[in-house]
Every structure is written in structure tokens, then in C-alpha cells.
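Q: I'm building a small set of examples for a reading group on sequence design. Run inverse folding on the following structure and report the sequence directly after it, with nothing in between.
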């Protein structure tokens, strides 16, 4: 049915205000009569109902409703309420009892909000108790002591009227020594949805079930072939272990008809845990031990989503609002969003074995403005999940319109209902808080259904990372809703494709309308600047590697994580993570570097200067270009110019030197700069600067050296001629001695005569003297004349130049401090 406009913040309708006043008058009339009739007694209702405490506070007794089952009863059911009452006052409460109270039907969603807001306020209207037999009595309530109660009542005895939402309250009545009359000392209001039969028109409800977590993996990986992943801590293992938050999300969601919304980063992180992984522990890393837990969680998740709709967020759930407000003017920021989107199918499909939808973008809390929508759709999404407190109705519709809204440019805003979506925020660790949240959610859903006879599509988009208690409350509410009679489940894609309400607003708010509380938690512009610089360093590094994928993948995903919406409210942790990624990358790039050089001494007109490149990575690097530049080419030239470039590649774990030819033109120091460049001409790493001390050889020095060389040559020639003359004299003396000996023998033979016994007979076979003379015959000692002459010369007096060698011996002393270059 149609009703007055009912939006967040609007007051109760005139009919409701009239009903409250009438109820107050009806309840007050017996009290006035009792005061007149019994002036000496404590105030009491004529119909036996106690009065509410006059001071209007929450009461001295706290009433907690821990359980209300069934949450949405139907005909024939019995409603059971259990909980505790605790005396928070200083006086003992006597003659106390817990009773149930059923109020009038609630006709608007805003009235539900008002009652929930003042659920324990004694100043508000208090409905009468139902039959006294449905109560539990306590003789006394001692201060500080909690007493348990459990009351059951058949639905038929509640006398519920038409279908709708009813106020349902549990109260504690009693008296104290200071006020010895029965009065209401504590109350807790909640709601009882009543739809026993099938509704004439059902609401199509889409519930999102988010699997999102914080960042857990570092950019760092092991140096081994497998690149063992490193985790920042062991928190993810706790979340997926039995009883952990994410473990409960999977276990609870498995039996619900929901649309799963997953972050690929979470899936990739758990998948990495199924193998070898390390965990940071202070300044060291230790081996991870939760492989079995990770495998089991993934197996359970695969089973849970096997036949369900799965929506994938971009990798690491980037903060779209922060990017839109602070990052679009930083070069490369939008490319980060695109890379986070492109990696979805390489992550979700292989792990979950389902094909996810990538058509949806989900800004934080569904808060949008025009810039957020523009950024959200820049990576390919054409649907934006918003929330009704952001895209508010301005046309005065008396009902909540369907979720789908065309907002221009082919983009559809899927507007989640803010009341249903925020029903499970806050601390729901206590059973009483969880029960109140469930009943309020169901009451809002039924009230929405009763607004009009037109069927509508409604979306519930809860907080991204529900706690375990919040997840349990959500699951309880959705089970009751899906088992009820006024709602039917629907996929998110169907809700987005539903026919939009022509009267619903489609105007996207401006940036000035973005909530200030959310803006304060955004990533600052400096974060996007740092991300861009790290990306530039990574791009420069990849091109020099033989296997760039070893750094492109881990660092690319780390940069996506730096933009995650999970950093909201954790600015210090976000800054620390960004700095850690940059420091680790700088450390890797620094392993490929130029070796520092000391001053080099250059003596001569030309020489070669070696420059060494060191590679401490496990993989080869190259091609790189090494450039050596002279800052003073008039004094020192590199290969006849200002500089020279040479290509270089270095194997992993090795060093390699490159030699540059230099030429000196003048004396003095010349500064030289060595710098590595990538193949595309960008500088790589830090330069190495060193001095070359040039000592030029002048003309005068050359003349002196030339004269000295000439003197050495002349001295050598003189020595040669002297030795030749000495050898000639020795040969002449030897010949003269031989001739004399022959003459002496001939003379003796002539003197002895031909008949003497010792006369020599003429030998016809005796050889004649050689034409060349005796110098060509063997020496007298049977050795060649050359050898004989050598022996003869050995006894000659020494020449003055013989003891001194031609050049001095090489010094064995260490070189000076300067580095000498090759010549």
C-alpha cells in the first residue's frame, strides 16, 4: 500500500503522532483515576499495568533480549523470548517480573528507526502487557546480578492484527524500598514482523556476500626458482582457520542464496599459502605452516560458489574515491586501476573454477559523485554499486524505488538500500545486540514490501569486512528473510537489468556532496605520487632483466595493494607498506651497479680506462649501455669525443669490465662520469664519478728523450765496431802463428835431409791449402774457429759498457695510490 514519503531523517507521520497521543491519554487516564481514588498509595494503572519510571532514563534494570524465535512467526507458531535482566541500581528490586508487551502496527520505515533508536527509553510510549500468565517472576533482583528469563507465548494469544510490523517489548517491573509500588524499571523494544500468508507482491532481494580482507602479502619473494612468497604476518591464517572471520563467511554463506563479491588479492594470497611460503617475524622470516588450512578453505569456497553468482572486484579492491579525488592528476594512476582489473581472470578463474562478472564497481560505502563514477567506469565496469543515502531521492516518492538507475553514458547505478545495508554495523558480539539487528532488518524489509503493490528489486550491500559476529547476524537475518513469505532472492545482475522506476532520481551528486567523514580517511595525493615513482623504477628495472616476470608480477601486485580501500583509517600502516615496497625494489635495482673508482693516473698521450659493472642478481642483465663522459674534453677525450658508449650484458652473480680508449691533450685533472643506460635511453642506477690525472709529454721532454736514445744508439754502434776489430786482430794473430809453425817444420825437414830416418815422405794424398786461407780451417784444439775465437775473447780485457745492462730492472715495489691505466 502507498504511504507518506519515508526517508532517512524524516519524522513520524501525522497519523502516527495522533496514535501516540491517543495511546498516552488512554494509558494516563486510569493513572489519574488511581491517584484520585488512592492518594496514599503508589501510582499504578487501574488495569493492573505498572507505570513507567518518571525520570525518563534507560531504567535502573537492564533488559537484554538474547533470542527471539522464530524471528518472523506465522500461524501456529510459538514465540520464545529469552534473555537476562540485570539490576544496575543500588537498591534491591522486589516483587519483580518480566513481561511481554505488544504495541500497535508500525506503518513507516522511519518509525522503525525511531523505535530502534530509543529502544530502552522509559520516557516513550509503553504498550500494555499481554496476558500475565506469559511472564516470569523474581522475588528479588540483587544489584549487579543478572537473572535469566525464558518466556514462550503462542502467536494466537498475541492477537496480532493485519500483516505488518509490530512493536514488541520485554519489560521488567518491580518495586524498591525507596519507591514501594510497582513500576517499569527496565525495557527493551524490538520488532515482530507478521506476514503469515504469501504476500500479494514479493520484493526481489539481492544480498551481497563480500569476501574481502586487508593486505597480507609483501612485494618480497625468495631468491629461489619458485620465488617463495613472503607474508607480512600470520593474520590471514587466523582468518581462514576454523572459527576465523573468513572461515565463518564461507561456512555461513554456503547455504544462503547470495551474490558473492570477491577480491582476487584474497584468493591469490590464500592460494600462495597452499605451497611453501614465509612469514615475517621481526627482522627475519620463518617458514609458514598453514598449508592444510589454506587448502581446506579454498576447497570449501569452491564448493560454496559452485552454482552461485560471483562478482569480482579489481585486484586488491582499489579505493575508487581516493583515486578520483586525489590521484587522477598523477600520471599512471589510472593505469594501476586497469592493471588491477586485467588480472582478474588470471586469478579468480583458475582458483575458484568459475567465471566472475567484472561489470560492477563498488566504491567505499556506496558513496558516489561524478568523479567517482568516471573513475569507476574507466577500467571497463558499466555498473556502479551505490547506496541510497548517497544517491538520495528528491522527487518525493512515497516508496523506495527499485535499485537500478540509468545515470548516463551507458552506466547503471545499482542503488543498495541504506537501512538494510547498515543494519549489521557496530558491535554485535553480544547476543542481545545481534538479535535486535536481525529483528530490525526483517522489520525494515517487510515495511518496504508494504509500501506499494508494485514489485521492486532491492539490493543489500553490507560492510566490506564483516566481523564474525556481524556475519552470523547477517546470515540469521537472510535465512529468516529467504524462508519468509514477502521476499524472493535475486542475483545482482538481474537487479541491475530490472526495469528502472521512471520517477526515481538519476542525478549523481557533485564532489562537494561526498561525506567529509569518508574524505578524511582517503589515500592522500602523496600516496599516488609515490606509487607512480615506484612504477617508474619498476619499468626501468624490467627492461634490463633476462626474465622480467620475476619482478613484474610481485611488484605489480604490490602496487595494486598500495591503492587498496582496506588502508582507510590506517594511514601509518599504508605509508609503511608503500615505503617497504619502494625500499625492496631499490635494493634489487642497486644490485646491478657500477663499481666505484679511485683517481686514475694517465701518463702518455693515449691509454684505456676500465669501468666495471657488477650484477648481484640471480639472473642475467642486459643489454645495458655504459657511457663514459669527459667533463673536460679539451684536456681528456673519450675515443676522440666528449663521451663513448658501449653495450654490456652481465651474467647473474658476476662482474664485467669495459675498456674505453682515451687521449690526453693537456696536463691536469679531468673529471669523468660513468653512467648506465637502458636500451631505450633512460638512466639506470647512480653514476660513478672519478678524476683522471693527466701528465702530458711536452716537446722539450721529447727532445731530451730523443737525444738520450741517440746516444744509446751511438754507444751501441761503437761497442759493435770495437768488438769486430778485436775479432779481426785475433784472427790475424792466429794465422801468423800457424804460418810460423809451418815454416819452422819445413826448415827442420830440409836440415835433416831426404835419407834421414825422420824425413817426411812426400804424400801424394795430402790435401792442398784452401784457397780461403787458414781462417776457414778447424782450430788447433779440434773445435771450430768461432768457438776457439770466443774462448780467446773471453780472456780479453772487459769493455767499459759490458757490466751495465741496456735497461733498468723492473721494480717490485707496489704502485702508488692512483690507478694506472693500460697503455
Amino acid at each position: 500500500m502507498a504511504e507518506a514519503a519515508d526517508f532517512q531523517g524524516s519524522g513520524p507521520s501525522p497519523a502516527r503522532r495522533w496514535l501516540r497521543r491517543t495511546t498516552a491519554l488512554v494509558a494516563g487516564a486510569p493513572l489519574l483515576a488511581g491517584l484520585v481514588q488512592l492518594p496514599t498509595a503508589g501510582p499504578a494503572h487501574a488495569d493492573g499495568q505498572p507505570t513507567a519510571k518518571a525520570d525518563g532514563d534507560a531504567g535502573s534494570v537492564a533488559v537484554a533480549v538474547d533470542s527471539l524465535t522464530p524471528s518472523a512467526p506465522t500461524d501456529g507458531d510459538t514465540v520464545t523470548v529469552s534473555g537476562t535482566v540485570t539490576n544496575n541500581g543500588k537498591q534491591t528490586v522486589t516483587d519483580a517480573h518480566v513481561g511481554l508487551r505488544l504495541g500497535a502496527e508500525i506503518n513507516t520505515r522511519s518509525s522503525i528507526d525511531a523505535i530502534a533508536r530509543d529502544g530502552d527509553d522509559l520516557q516513550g510510549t509503553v504498550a500494555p502487557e499481554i496476558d500475565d500468565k506469559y511472564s516470569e517472576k523474581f522475588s528479588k533482583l540483587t544489584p549487579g546480578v543478572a537473572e535469566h528469563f525464558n518466556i514462550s507465548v503462542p502467536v494466537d494469544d498475541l492477537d496480532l492484527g493485519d500483516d505488518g510490523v509490530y512493536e514488541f517489548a520485554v519489560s521488567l517491573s518491580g518495586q524498591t524500598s525507596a519507591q514501594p509500588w510497582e513500576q517499569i524499571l527496565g525495557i527493551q523494544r524490538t520488532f515482530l514482523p507478521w506476514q503469515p500468508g504469501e504476500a500479494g507482491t514479493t520484493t526481489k532481494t539481492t544480498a551481497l556476500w563480500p569476501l574481502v580482507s586487508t593486505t597480507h602479502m609483501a612485494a618480497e619473494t625468495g631468491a629461489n626458482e619458485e620465488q617463495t612468497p613472503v607474508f607480512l604476518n600470520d593474520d590471514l591464517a587466523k582468518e581462514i582457520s576454523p572459527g576465523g572471520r573468513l572461515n565463518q563467511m564461507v561456512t555461513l554463506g554456503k547455504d544462503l542464496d547470495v551474490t558473492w563479491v570477491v577480491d582476487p588479492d584474497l584468493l591469490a594470497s590464500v592460494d600462495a599459502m597452499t605451497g611453501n611460503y614465509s612469514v615475517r617475524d621481526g627482522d627475519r622470516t620463518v617458514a609458514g605452516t598453514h598449508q592444510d588450512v589454506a587448502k581446506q578453505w579454498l576447497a570449501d569456497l569452491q564448493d560454496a560458489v559452485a552454482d552461485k553468482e560471483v562478482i569480482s572486484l579489481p585486484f586488491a579492491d582499489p579505493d575508487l574515491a581516493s583515486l578520483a579525488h586525489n590521484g587522477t592528476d598523477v600520471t599512471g594512476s589510472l593505469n594501476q586501476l586497469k592493471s588491477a582489473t586485467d588480472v582478474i581472470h588470471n586469478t579468480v578463474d583458475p582458483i575458484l573454477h568459475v567465471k566472475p562478472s567484472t561489470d560492477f564497481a563498488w566504491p567505499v560505502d556506496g558513496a558516489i559523485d561524478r568523479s567517482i563514477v568516471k573513475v569507476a567506469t574507466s577500467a571497463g565496469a558499466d555498473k556502479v554499486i551505490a547506496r541510497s543515502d548517497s544517491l538520495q531521492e528528491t522527487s518525493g516518492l512515497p516508496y523506495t524505488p527499485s535499485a537500478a538507475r540509468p545515470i548516463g553514458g551507458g552506466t547503471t547505478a545499482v542503488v543498495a538500500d541504506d537501512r538494510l545495508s547498515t543494519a549489521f554495523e557496530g558491535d554485535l558480539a553480544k547476543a542481545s545486540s545481534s538479535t535486535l539487528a536481525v529483528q530490525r532488518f526483517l522489520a525494515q524489509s517487510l515495511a518496504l514490501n508494504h509500501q506499494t503493490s508494485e514489485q521492486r528489486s532491492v539490493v543489500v550491500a553490507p560492510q566490506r569486512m564483516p566481523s564474525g559476529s556481524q556475519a552470523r547476524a547477517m546470515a540469521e537475518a537472510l535465512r529468516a528473510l529467504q524462508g519468509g513469505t514477502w521476499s524472493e532472492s535475486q542475483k545482482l545482475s538481474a537487479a541491475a537489468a530490472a526495469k528502472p522506476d521512471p520517477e526515481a532520481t538519476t542525478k549523481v551528486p557533485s564532489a562537494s556532496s561526498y561525506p567529509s567523514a569518508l574524505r578524511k580517511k582517503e589515500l592522500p595525493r602523496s600516496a599516488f605520487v609515490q606509487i607512480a615513482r615506484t612504477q617508474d623504477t619498476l619499468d626501468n628495472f624490467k627492461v634490463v632483466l633476462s626474465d622480467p616476470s620475476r619482478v613484474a608480477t610481485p611488484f605489480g601486485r604490490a602496487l595494486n595493494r598500495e591503492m587498496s580501500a582496506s588502508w582507510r583509517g590506517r594511514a601509518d600502516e599504508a605509508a609503511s607498506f608503500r615505503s617497504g615496497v619502494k625500499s625492496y625494489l631499490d635494493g634489487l635495482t642497486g644490485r646491478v651497479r657500477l663499481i666505484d673508482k679511485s683517481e686514475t693516473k694517465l701518463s702518455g698521450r693515449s691509454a684505456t680506462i676500465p669501468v666495471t659493472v657488477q650484477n648481484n642478481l640471480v639472473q642475467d642483465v642486459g643489454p645495458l649501455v655504459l657511457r663514459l663522459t669527459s667533463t673536460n674534453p679539451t684536456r681528456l677525450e673519450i675515443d676522440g669525443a666528449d663521451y663513448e658508449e658501449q653495450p654490456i650484458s652481465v651474467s647473474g652473480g658476476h662482474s664485467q669490465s669495459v675498456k674505453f680508449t682515451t687521449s690526453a691533450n693537456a696536463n691536469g685533472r679531468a673529471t669523468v662520469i660513468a653512467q648506465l643506460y637502458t636500451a631505450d635511453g633512460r638512466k639506470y642506477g647512480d653514476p660513478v664519478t672519478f678524476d683522471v690525472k693527466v701528465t702530458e709529454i711536452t716537446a722539450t721532454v721529447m727532445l731530451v728523450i730523443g737525444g738520450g736514445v741517440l746516444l744509446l744508439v751511438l754507444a751501441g754502434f761503437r761497442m759493435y765496431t770495437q768488438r769486430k776489430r778485436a775479432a779481426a786482430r785475433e784472427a790475424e794473430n792466429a794465422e801468423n802463428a800457424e804460418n810460423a809453425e809451418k815454416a819452422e817444420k819445413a826448415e827442420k825437414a830440409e836440415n835433416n835431409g831426404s835419407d834421414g830416418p825422420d824425413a817426411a815422405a812426400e804424400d801424394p794424398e795430402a790435401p792442398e791449402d784452401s784457397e780461403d786461407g787458414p781462417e776457414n780451417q778447424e782450430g788447433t784444439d779440434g773445435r771450430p774457429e768461432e768457438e776457439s775465437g770466443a774462448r780467446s775473447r773471453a780472456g780479453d780485457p772487459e769493455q767499459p759498457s759490458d757490466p751495465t745492462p741496456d735497461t733498468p730492472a723492473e721494480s717490485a715495489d707496489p704502485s702508488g695510490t692512483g690507478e694506472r691505466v693500460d697503455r
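The radius of gyration is 51 Å.
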